[in-house]
Amino acid sequence: MMETERVHEEDDMGGWSEITSTECPIARSSAVIGDRWTLVIMRELTMGNRRFDSLQVQTLASPQMLTNRLKRLEADGMLERRVYSDRPRRYEYHLTAKGEAFASVLLALRAWGEMWCKEPGEGIAVHHLHKACGREVGLSGTVCEGCGEPFTMNEVTGELSAAFARERADRSAAARQDAEIRST
User: Fold this and answer.
1) Which long-range CB contacts under 8 A does 78-83 form with residues at least 24 apart?
2) What pLDDT is stored for residue 35 in this prediction?
3) pLDDT tier at 138 (50, 70, 90 boundaries)?
4) Which residues have a Cβ under 8 Å from the Cβ of 84 and sit 6 or more positions away?
5) DSSP state letters, 14-68
6) Cα–Cα distance between 111 and 95 in angstroms, integer?
7) CB of 126 within 8 A of CB of 137?
8) Residue 17 has pLDDT above 50, yes or no
9) What pLDDT is stored for residue 20 in this prediction?
């Protein structure tokens, strides 16, 4: 029997540590993902958001929390940093093959959240259109409800609902306003 031990300790999580010595894939996965911050960071990376400042704005994570989660995701092989500016040195964060494979988990969470975590009358936040057939893929996982073919996140285009687009724009505008106030 193979035994795996993974340890993550984070000061900003109140001394939280996770030790997994189990064959259970759910427990092992939770050692990588760990918390809601990691999920929303992975959502943003899947949506193509790559830069620290923008990730911070859209996840609402503190700089320290975001830094810690990005480092953990990098250490776990979910993403890689790539330099986009030498002066000052700045990085973009790109999903690895392991990170891209996590998209199916995000799609499952999206489907569950659309079904069970919304108020009556709220619309779908993101419509994913299958590039191959042009139809919406629906909420049934990684098989397009329009054409019945499997898809990956690279094979869909996401269209934000007006409400979700407005929410994201409002967060960006608030961050710009905060930055202007701090610079004066």
Assistant:
1) 78/32, 78/42, 78/102, 79/45
2) 87
3) very high
4) 51, 90, 91, 92
5) TT-EEEE-SS-HHHHHHHHH-SHHHHHHHHHHHTT--BHHHHHHHH---HHHHHH
6) 22
7) no
8) no
9) 54
